[in-house]
UniProtKB/TrEMBL annotation:
PANTHER family: PERIPLASMIC SIGNAL SENSOR AND SIGMA FACTOR ACTIVATOR FECR-RELATED (PTHR30273), PROTEIN FECR (PTHR30273:SF2). InterPro entries: FecR, FecR_C, Ferrdict_sens_TM. Residues 170-267 form the FecR protein domain. The chain crosses the membrane at residues 76-100. It comes from the Bacteria. This is FecR family protein.
Length: 379
């Protein structure tokens, strides 16, 4: 198949519109190792972030393989639907990824009545006098040099000559975007808090503090603001940049702080230790050890949360549930330590309901669950 035709068939497949012939062409094309990588890259860049739910499903694949052989003998292969082919294509790609179109998802979902909703744009703005302002999609806000449309808070430059701080707190089940007066943009993940000045002083270092949580920074270059550098402070590290994009993860319930560089360069400082990062590198500060560790990582996986998806690779169910608990604002209870250690691969669309995700886990690894109010019990 030509590259153009490949993209058309992939797009139709992910939207549940591919014919039997097109699906079989796709399956055949993916038998080539090089094509698997092309498919995965295309999926992440163009489709996975918006249209699909992906989850580990080797068990589903084996079941489908048996069904395919049975139907082939009967000459009725055409009755297999996209949902079933999905498991086949998934495992061809890599040891058990599961792709599922949203429409087909409804057919497999456990129907459980609960009040657990996916997260949304919301935050609390704390002004310098201690006043709290609720920001969400249902209302706009404007005061001084700040304004919000419900999903983004924007500050304009006013040159007051003194530093006045505000706080932006994103609760569990929320996310929010902030544009600082120097045009730096910050995306805050669930359960995060940022301290920042309502304006910067020209020529002086621009400083903000990630009190806790996770944030993605797209920093305006120093040449656009009098040559001043930009620093992100945290209680255990300091990140200094001139103009770049990076992600910091520093949750209160985790023992490590992760700084991941997407483009540009940053210096990470901790006591007497300093590490300079290049793109695709991540620094790790373990709070119980000295020094700063540096490794090469897949930045798409690290910052996928900002683009509407959670990517997991050989991640334990315990860590996956920690991420989901923040986004869906739920408490997690494991009835067995063995279950916590089970690992999964895949990507979850942040707009999916929690029950659809739990159904995938249940179907692929025979894990049962129960929802009681805002508590998820996994057994």
């Amino acid at each position: 198949m030509s590259d153009k035709k490949n993209k058309v068939i992939i797009s139709k497949y992910l939207n549940g519109e591919a014919s039997e012939e097109e699906i079989m062409l796709l399956v055949s094309w993916l038998e080539d190792e090089k094509n698997k990588e092309v498919f995965k890259s295309y999926l992440i860049i163009n489709h996975a972030l918006d249209n699909t739910l992906i989850f580990d499903s080797l068990a589903a694949y084996k079941k489908t393989q048996r069904k395919i052989k049975k139907t082939e003998r009967k000459g009725i292969l055409r009755y297999l639907n996209v949902f079933e082919y999905a498991a086949v294509i998934a495992v061809i790609i890599s040891a058990g990824y599961f792709f599922l179109n949203r429409d087909n998802l409804e057919e497999t979902r456990d129907v459980i009545s609960n009040n657990i909703a996916a997260g949304s744009d919301k935050a609390i703005l704390t002004l310098s006098d201690g006043t709290n302002v609720t920001l969400d999609k249902n209302q706009s806000y404007a005061s001084g040099n700040a304004k919000s449309n419900g999903s983004e808070l924007i500050y304009s430059h006013v040159s007051k000559g003194k530093i006045v701080y505000n706080y932006l707190t994103v609760p569990r089940g929320g996310q929010f975007c902030l544009k600082l007066p120097d045009q730096t943009k910050v995306w805050l993940n669930s359960e995060s808090k940022l301290k920042f000045p309502v304006d910067f002083i020209q020529g002086k270092t621009r400083e903000v503090e990630l009190v806790y949580g996770e944030a993605y920074f797209d920093v305006s270059h120093s040449t656009n603001y009098g040559g001043s550098s930009f620093k992100v402070l945290n209680h255990n590290q300091e990140v200094e940049v001139l103009g770049t994009q990076f992600n910091i993860k520093a949750y209160r319930d985790e023992q490590s702080i992760y700084t991941t560089l997407i483009e540009g360069s940053v210096e990470v400082h901790r006591s007497n230790y300093t590490e300079k990062l290049v793109p695709n590198q991540q620094s790790i500060i373990n709070l119980s050890h000295r020094g700063i560790a540096v490794s090469t990582v897949d930045v798409n996986k690290i910052v996928s949360w900002k683009k509407g998806v959670f990517l997991f690779e050989n991640e334990s169910l315990k860590n996956i549930m920690k991420v989901l608990s923040r986004w869906y604002d739920i408490d997690i209870v494991f009835e067995s330590k063995n279950i916590e250690a089970q690992t999964f691969n895949g990507a979850l669309n942040k707009k999916q309901s929690i029950t659809s995700i739990l159904t995938m886990i249940k179907n692929t690894n025979n894990i049962n669950y129960e929802i009681q109010g805002k508590t998820l019990i996994i057994r």
